[in-house]
Each structure stands twice: as structure tokens, then as C-alpha cells.
Amino acid sequence: MAEVAYVNASRIFSGNPPVRAVDQLQLDVADGEFLVLVGPSGSGKSTALRMLAGLEDVDEGAIEIGGKDVTNVPPKGRDIAMVFQSYALYPHMTVAENMGFALKLRGVAKAQIKEQVAEAAKMLDLTKYLDRKPKALSGGQRQRVAMGRAIVREPSVFLMDEPLSNLDAKLRVETRANIAALQQRLGTTTIYVTHDQVEAMTMGHRVAVLKDGLLQQCDTPRALYDHPANAFVAGFIGSPAMNLKTVPLTAEGAKLDGIVVPLSRAALDKASGESLGEVTFGIRPEALALVSSEEQGMNMTVELVEELGADALVHGAVKIGEGTERFVVRVDGRTPPTLGQQVKVAVRDTTEIHLFHPESGDRLEA
Amino acid sequence: MRRFLDRHWYAYAMVLPVVVVIAVLVLYPLAQGVYFTFTNINEANIANPVLDRAASYVGVGFRNYLKVLSGDSSYGAFWSTLLRTLVWTFGCVFCHYTVGLGLAMLLNRQVRGRALYRVLLIVPWAVPAFISAFAWKYMFNAQFGIVNQVLRAVGLPGPVWLGQSDLALLAVVIVNVWLGVPFMMVALLGGLQSIPADLYEAAEMDGATPWQRFRHVTLPGLRSVSSTVVLLGIIWTFNMFPVIYLVTGQNPNTRILVTYAFERFFAGASRDYAIACTYGVLILSVLLVFATVYRRALRKQGEVW
Amino acid sequence: MTVDAAALRVAAQAARTRVAGRRGRRSRLSSVGLHAALVLAALIAVFPVFWVLVTSFKPDSRAVEATPKLVDHSSLDNYADVLSGAKGDFLAWFGNSVLIALLTTVIAVFLSATTGYAVSRFRFPGLRPLMLSFLVMQMFPFAVLIVPLYNILIAIGLQGTSIGLVLVYCTTAVPFCTYMLKGYFDTIPSDIDEAGRMDGLSPFGVFWRLVLPLSTPGLAVTAFYSFLTAWGEVAFASAFLSASDQSKTLAVGLQVFVQQNRTEWGHLAAASILVAIPAVLVFYLVQRFLVTGLASGSVKG
């Protein structure tokens, strides 16, 4: 059990120019917390995790585990365990040997290793497979062995690097829940890397969003969803992605296809303070609704309807300024519009509107 | 500096033994060998601890190189020997590669008894070279050799294979091809097995004929293996001395650069170390030039090696 | 719910049957042609060895018959003569050769494994020059450097010893073996190394306990190659071992034997067979690893 801290930690890959894969990362993870690092590929999330593991050098700043500076401590001195994307099971060892290897290296007595392995195997439903080699296991079983190898050691921190990305969709959802439950039960500080924002939202106590090596925002899933700190986070978190459009600004609000969507006073003041003629206007598909033709709203031509069962996603073109922009609206699954139909779209609730600076992307309100 | 060592000391610790051995047993002798090429060192003037005789060889500048490069036949007729070496090298490697590839493709098929065929086909590699040389020398013997026996049986004349004619060169090429095919075959077989089967299936879907599949899937898939083994094959064959030396002895018709270096080194009353080393340096130069050109050509085709 | 391994096996079985069915469509004619070509090639590959074997049982006089027969007064006499030492201290040579070849194998495999691992996993300054020097080393006919080598071996006190000769052999075997093993190590995912580091191994521990056990095919080929390098070598062995008959290797002894008994083809054949046996034995032990081991090595080059 331990808390983890990145203290302005950077990893710089040599090259011309040098690449700052992780740039001045400042992040505190509480004891027992499940923190998810999420971001697109190349965002530095895996590098950040590997710095914590001791597999990657820390070029600037420091890493602390349990209050101790471990920046220059080799992996084995950090009391951490890691689950790899490829699982990295030792092909020449049985499941039991794989799981007990770290204990064996530490000189733990054989009987105790056996006991601990058996216990972990029971927890992960692997008891039947202890004598098999990894080659003879299915993908899901291998994944569980990789988990087992980590938990047998009872480390103070778990690191997981996209541990579910090699599973099929159904198994992934199931294992997602299992890992979250296991972490809850063990109460071990866990840092989890993924590129899948659904995983991030469903598993993490807090989620840290990275882009180009820079931490964009770190908060609870709810807060990330409701108050994204910038346009990148707004677009990255949530599926389907938030509608983000640059729209002209008037004294009352944002101008979309003839209608003016009223905006909060605070936001308008901030925009006028910076004398912005435009803002990046964000609204989630579920905050939009189809309305009858008499009501006020934007005219949209339906270009694509994705039926998801319970609901449907309607993609369509809306005139904004001179050109057209694509919007996605989440509607009831039983009565979707048809292709080519003209529909009216209105904002359900103006409090669900997000405004961002058109250049910096920063959020335009308190 | 500390950081540098911190980061790399594992690597250096692991290569250190090899580097030490190479430095002592390769670099130093090589440097001394190069130095010898500028002297007239031979058996008669070298330091001899047994006879308690001090070294008395002297520097002769570039004279050894001039003698050799003049093409004088008393110094091994360098240019015609080089030509023969090239014929020998490319002849052997061409046969190694084509026969090896052919056999590898046969073995890469689903065929009954594949494991047995494979073992039998690799046998020439497993037999020590001097024994193979002995076997072939025996088989090529003009009077009681089985080769001529077979030729006569089908009504052909049985020539003197290992005599003073170009037949001897043909004979050693045959022996060396026999020796070298297994290595190529095994390497190419591994290369073939690493070509994903779905590439062939995709080509089949696109309507490629077997020849087109060979041309556009197999050969490109083997490129990196081929470029490596061909280069190695050329270097090894260029310097292949036991086969020629053991099968035909000092026969001017089978003389290549490296066997001449050995003749100078081992044979005759005055072992001419200086000329032998000069030949060694020239061989190295030829191969270095070749390897550089080869690498350029590969790089031009987009292969980083 | 998890996919059961048994179910997976069934699926794999089905896939195999399907492939086999497809392959089964090869026509009878092409199948015969395929086997004919392989049989012919195998005959050519094996025949010289077989012929030496046949000859080894014949008396010297019968070995040079103008119309050779398979069996011609054949007996084990040649072998008895050779083994009894009538033609030189064969058993002593044999012992020397085994010792030297095994030592070379062990040391060369060890050296090329550590080096191969370092160049496969670490990016350290000096990596490229090292690899290039391995290539260049194969371009020089080192036997012409016997004189300087001799001087060095005297200087470090190894002249006339087996270990000196073994080290010289290592310099010939290690460059190619390193290339080969580097290629093999490259195929082992570095995740395995990192998992080992996380489990508490040092970089040397990772090499010793994870990478080596996973590299059997590569190591087998390396062993085979270095064994053969040492087993059949003549020039260095005759220069660096002391001149006494007792300390010769087989290759050297046999060479002397050949020069002294040019006409004793039967005895020569018997001795050759005896020399070939250990090499073929080693070959047989490693042959099933040969393709995988060499393949990944040369694919990556």
C-alpha cells in the first residue's frame, strides 16, 4: 500500500529535435486509488507508466512511491508489479511457476509460494490450469495469469499497460468489471493505462488525460465528463464524441443556423473580455433533441442513422456561418428519422453547453 | 560520465569478454600482419627463440604490393588468380543459392517424410570438410573413382578430373557446391517459413499464377534472408581454402587468392610470410570494396542493413 | 465465460484438416515428381559419405579396384588397425579433439550469447563498430597470421595449450554465432525481459534465467557451428599444438596419416568415418532446431 507521485517528471527521447514523450508530469495518486492514464497513441501514457515501473529513465523531475524518491531505484527495488499488454508470460514456465517466479526470486519458502499461488489462482479461477504452459491457454486465461502474477506478490502498486486490448469485446467488458472488483477488494494503488475512454470512465476513481506528453486534466470520470478542462478532453471523453464546432458569437449567445443559443453571462463576459468573435461550442449528442418543425431549432439534413438498439445516433449537416457542419444527435431508438429527412434540432438544456477558446481550446468559464 | 556508465555498464560487461579476445587475438595480429606486408619477413629471417636467433627482416616499403599487383607469375599472377577467384566465388554461390532455394521450396511443402529428407540433405554440412574432401578426391580418382566408373557405364569418356586442367576447377566447384548447399537450404527454408501463408492466399485470390506468386511473394519475402546469406556466402567462398587445398593440392588450375596465400605461407623452403600477408590484405580490400558496393546497392533498393 | 483450451484445440484441428484437404488436391504426378527430386537430392547429399563408409570396410588393395563393388572382402580390419594405434595414436588424437571441440563449443556459445544479447537489447555507443568488425573479421584469411598469433600466444603463456587453440577457434566462430544469436534474441519480445525486471531480476538474471532457456534453437545452432569449426580445423591446430604425436588433434593426425599413407584408401576411409561420427552425432542432436535457430538469425541478419 502506498501513494505515488510524479514530481514534474519528464522523459525526453533523443533525436532531432528531442521529443518530450512525457513533459513535466505532476500527478499525485492516493493510497488505494485506481488511477487511469488515458490518451491517444503517442500521448506518453505508456511512457509515464514505464517511468514509474523503472523501465524508462526519468530525465527530469522525480518519481515517488510511498513518499520515497525512487527515481534511481531499479524496478526490483520499487515493490511494484506490472501487467503487460502482451501479458509477457514466461513461455517455458507453467502457470504456477509464472505466478510464483517473483516470490522464488525473493527467496520465499517453497511451501509458502505454493500457498500464495493457490490462493491467487482460486481468486482468478485458474486452479485447474496451474500445471499448464501459457501456450495451452486461451487469451482470457493468459490475461488472468498475468493478473495473478501481479497479485501473488502483494506489491504496493499495480501497474497495468492496456491489459485488455488483446481480448475480444465481450471478454473485455467482463474482465473490466473483474479487475475493478479485484482492485476494490485488494485496495492496492493501481495505475492503469488505456487508450479506450470507456475503460477509463468505467474503471478509474480518477482519470488523467494525456496528450503529446502533457497532462490535460485529472479528475473523476463524472467531473471529466461534465466539466472538461479543454476542447481536447471534451472531444476525447464520451462516446460518441461531443459535437465541437467553431461558431460566431453575438451579444446574446452563439449563432447556429439562424438561431441564437443563449449562453451564460459569465461565459459571454469572458469571451468579450478577450474580444473573441468566435467560440468553440461544444454539446454532447444526448444534450441535443429532435423537435417538431414549429419549434425553434437548427435545420438538419439526416446523412446517417446508426441504430444502437436502445437509442440511435443521427448524423446530419447543419449550416453554420458560410459552410455546413456535421452534428450527432442521440435519439430514441424506436423512432429514428430516415435518411435524407429534414429535421429540427434543439438544445435540451443550455447548462450542458461547453464553451472553449477557439485557439487555445481552454474552457471559457469558471 | 557516471550517468553514461550507469546506463550502459550491463551492455559493456556483456561484450567485454568478446572485445578482449578479439582485440588480443584478432586486432593485434592483424595489425602485425599489415606491418609484415611492408617487410621481407620469411622463415629465414624471423626471430627464432629455439635457435636463439634475432629477427633480421627489413622494411621494403610497398615493394611487396608492387610485386604482387604487377601480376608476375612468380608472385601468383595476381590478376588472373583474382579472375579465377571471382569465377569460383560467383559460380559456387550462384549454385548454392539456386539449388538451396529449390530444395528449400520442395521441403517447405507438405510432403511425407519431410523430416527425413531434411536430415539427409543437411548431412554434407555435418561432415568435417577434410573428410568430404577426402571422399570426393577418392570419388574423382581417374582410375578407380566412382565418378568415372559411372561416366564409362553410360558410354562417356572418363577424364582425369584432378589433373592440370580446368576440369579440376569444375571438380572443386562441384565439391564446394555439395558442401555449401545445406547451409543455404536451411537458411532459406527458415525464410520461407516466415512468409505468412495469407500472403499466398491473397495472391491466389488476386489470380496470380504459381510463377507470379514465386516472383512477387516468395522472392520479396526472402529478400532480407537472401541478402544476408548471399553476402556471407560470397565472403566465405572467397576465402574457402580447405576444399581446394585438400582436393587438388597445389594445382595452378584451381589456385585462388587464398590458396596462393597459403602456398606462400606453408610451402617451399622459405615460407614467405610477407607475400602471404600481402595477399591477405589484398583479399580483405577486395571483399571490403565488394561489401560496400553490395550494401549501397541494397540501400538503393530501400533495404536498411 | 472463457474460451476453453480444448475448444481451441478442436478448432485448430479442424483448420488443419481443411488445409490438408486442400493440399491433398496435388496431383499424383506432381507428387511423384516432388518425391523423385527429393530422393535424387538426398542421394547426392549422402552418397559420398556412404561411399567412404563402404570403402572403409575394404582392404587397401580392394579399395582401388577399377570396377568398385559394394562389398569386396569387407571386414572390420581397417577399424581395428586404426583403433589399435597401428596407424598413429588415434585414441589420443580423438580425446584431444573432443576436449578442444567441446571447450570451443562451450566458450564460443557463451561469448556469442552474451554479446548477441547485448547487441540485441541495448543501444550502446560502439554497437555498430562492433557489429561491423564482426563482418570484417570474416573477410581476412586468418591462417596467414599464424606467425603473429603464435607470438601472442607465447606472450600470454598459452602457446602449445589447448586453451590457446580454443580461443583462436572462438575468434573464428564467434562473429557468425553472434549475428545468428542476435537475430534469435530479437524474436523474443522484450516484454519478457521487462516482466523479468519487474519480478526482481537484474539484467544478467533476465539473460540467464529467461532469455537463455527460451533460446534453445539458436543456442543449438551456435553449438553445432562452433563444434564443427573446431572439429575439422587443421592449419591452426598443427601450428599451435606441440609437435608430439600425443597432443595432435584428429584432423592434424589424419592429415599426417594421409601424407604418409597415400595409398591406404581403406584405412583412410575407416579413419574418416571414425572422425565423422562425433560430428554427425552432434548434428543429429541439434538438427530439429536447425531451421528455426538459423532462420531467425539470418532473417534479421
From TrEMBL, chain A:
<dbReference type="Pfam" id="PF00005">
    <property type="entry name" value="ABC_tran"/>
</dbReference>
<dbReference type="InterPro" id="IPR017871">
    <property type="entry name" value="ABC_transporter-like_CS"/>
</dbReference>
<dbReference type="Pfam" id="PF17912">
    <property type="entry name" value="OB_MalK"/>
</dbReference>
<dbReference type="InterPro" id="IPR027417">
    <property type="entry name" value="P-loop_NTPase"/>
</dbReference>
<dbReference type="GO" id="GO:0005524">
    <property type="term" value="F:ATP binding"/>
</dbReference>
<feature type="domain" description="ABC transporter">
    <location>
        <begin position="4"/>
        <end position="237"/>
    </location>
</feature>
<dbReference type="InterPro" id="IPR040582">
    <property type="entry name" value="OB_MalK-like"/>
</dbReference>
<protein>
    <submittedName>
        <fullName>sn-glycerol-3-phosphate ABC transporter ATP-binding protein UgpC</fullName>
    </submittedName>
</protein>
<dbReference type="InterPro" id="IPR008995">
    <property type="entry name" value="Mo/tungstate-bd_C_term_dom"/>
</dbReference>
<dbReference type="InterPro" id="IPR003439">
    <property type="entry name" value="ABC_transporter-like_ATP-bd"/>
</dbReference>
<keyword id="KW-0547">Nucleotide-binding</keyword>
<dbReference type="GO" id="GO:0055052">
    <property type="term" value="C:ATP-binding cassette (ABC) transporter complex, substrate-binding subunit-containing"/>
</dbReference>
<dbReference type="InterPro" id="IPR003593">
    <property type="entry name" value="AAA+_ATPase"/>
</dbReference>
<keyword id="KW-0813">Transport</keyword>
<keyword id="KW-0067">ATP-binding</keyword>
<dbReference type="GO" id="GO:0140359">
    <property type="term" value="F:ABC-type transporter activity"/>
</dbReference>
<dbReference type="InterPro" id="IPR015855">
    <property type="entry name" value="ABC_transpr_MalK-like"/>
</dbReference>
<dbReference type="InterPro" id="IPR012340">
    <property type="entry name" value="NA-bd_OB-fold"/>
</dbReference>
<dbReference type="InterPro" id="IPR047641">
    <property type="entry name" value="ABC_transpr_MalK/UgpC-like"/>
</dbReference>
<dbReference type="GO" id="GO:0016887">
    <property type="term" value="F:ATP hydrolysis activity"/>
</dbReference>
<dbReference type="GO" id="GO:0008643">
    <property type="term" value="P:carbohydrate transport"/>
</dbReference>
Automatic annotation (TrEMBL), chain C:
<keyword id="KW-0472">Membrane</keyword>
<keyword id="KW-1133">Transmembrane helix</keyword>
<keyword id="KW-0762">Sugar transport</keyword>
<dbReference type="Pfam" id="PF00528">
    <property type="entry name" value="BPD_transp_1"/>
</dbReference>
<feature type="transmembrane region" description="Helical">
    <location>
        <begin position="265"/>
        <end position="286"/>
    </location>
</feature>
<feature type="transmembrane region" description="Helical">
    <location>
        <begin position="98"/>
        <end position="119"/>
    </location>
</feature>
<keyword id="KW-0812">Transmembrane</keyword>
<dbReference type="InterPro" id="IPR050901">
    <property type="entry name" value="BP-dep_ABC_trans_perm"/>
</dbReference>
<protein>
    <submittedName>
        <fullName>Carbohydrate ABC transporter permease</fullName>
    </submittedName>
</protein>
<feature type="transmembrane region" description="Helical">
    <location>
        <begin position="162"/>
        <end position="185"/>
    </location>
</feature>
<feature type="domain" description="ABC transmembrane type-1">
    <location>
        <begin position="94"/>
        <end position="286"/>
    </location>
</feature>
<dbReference type="InterPro" id="IPR035906">
    <property type="entry name" value="MetI-like_sf"/>
</dbReference>
<keyword id="KW-1003">Cell membrane</keyword>
<dbReference type="GO" id="GO:0042956">
    <property type="term" value="P:maltodextrin transmembrane transport"/>
</dbReference>
<feature type="transmembrane region" description="Helical">
    <location>
        <begin position="206"/>
        <end position="228"/>
    </location>
</feature>
<dbReference type="GO" id="GO:0015423">
    <property type="term" value="F:ABC-type maltose transporter activity"/>
</dbReference>
<feature type="transmembrane region" description="Helical">
    <location>
        <begin position="32"/>
        <end position="54"/>
    </location>
</feature>
<dbReference type="GO" id="GO:0005886">
    <property type="term" value="C:plasma membrane"/>
</dbReference>
<feature type="transmembrane region" description="Helical">
    <location>
        <begin position="131"/>
        <end position="156"/>
    </location>
</feature>
<dbReference type="InterPro" id="IPR000515">
    <property type="entry name" value="MetI-like"/>
</dbReference>
<keyword id="KW-0813">Transport</keyword>
<comment type="similarity">
    <text>Belongs to the binding-protein-dependent transport system permease family. MalFG subfamily.</text>
</comment>
